[in-house]
Amino acid sequence: RGAARRGGAPRQRASEHEHNMAREEDAAWPPSGTLRNPVSLARKIRGSEGVVILRDLPAAPMKALRSLMSGLAARPELRERANAAASRTWSESGGSAVLDLSQERLGAIDRADADLRRECAALGLSPALEFWAKLEREIVPALSRVVAVATGDAEAVLSDVSTTYRLVDSTRRSARRDVGTYTLVWADAPGFQVRLAGDWRDLPCGDDPLLLFGMCTQIRSNDRIPARLHRLADAPTSRLAATLVVAPACLDTTIEPFVLPKENRRYRPGLSLRQLRRPHIDPYSRKLLRDARQDKALKHARLRHR
Q: pTM of the entire structure?
């Protein structure tokens, strides 16, 4: 019995240590989670204030992605061919260069200019597409299920999913909210910020991506999971962000709030993704108006309660 008592103390101390570590992790902001524990991750999303660090995901091939963006910046003829095949595949505005890809865009490029993908492969396109394909195959289904559970309406979230791959090389990006369901962001340098309680707060930069939520999730969760304003603070040198954007595929998809017991419904019925996107006349221009336009869209979508 004495031996059992002596052996019990270390086990108890270890258990207390694990409990304290879990409590400290829960208190940290932004919270971090992993798809290996989907129940815990869903709980952290619900209490995240709109930002989560997602651990144990594949590391983005930032060196190859930087090579791709630099190579395209130096080859205007390749950019022009890409835009001729699929409008606004490459865009520049306000100190930002954006490469915007999706399966639809890639298909259009292959049909219109079969040699373009081969020529871009030498610049770093192949590692980029392999990385995004791995995410779409292994990460998006699992993460979408977790976000659906956290939102409350799994069927609505999972029934209509599309992905867009975006590289942004920029010295600054003005404040905006995402429109879709969620966005994963890998950055190669600090400077990414979110608006919280009236202040701009710096977010950590490392191998683990940031998980942010769009207006579709804010509405579907009845405001329990906010779509945070975010921006890239000014810097003398450019920074590269690799993003995976998940959103409803159909612009006419109805975005309905999942209202919990004792909650008031905060958004009017019949909202569609098309209505939420309407303030965005162009994705990468009129950037100074974007914040005000998005606030107007959300205000118009809300119900007024006496």
A: 0.83
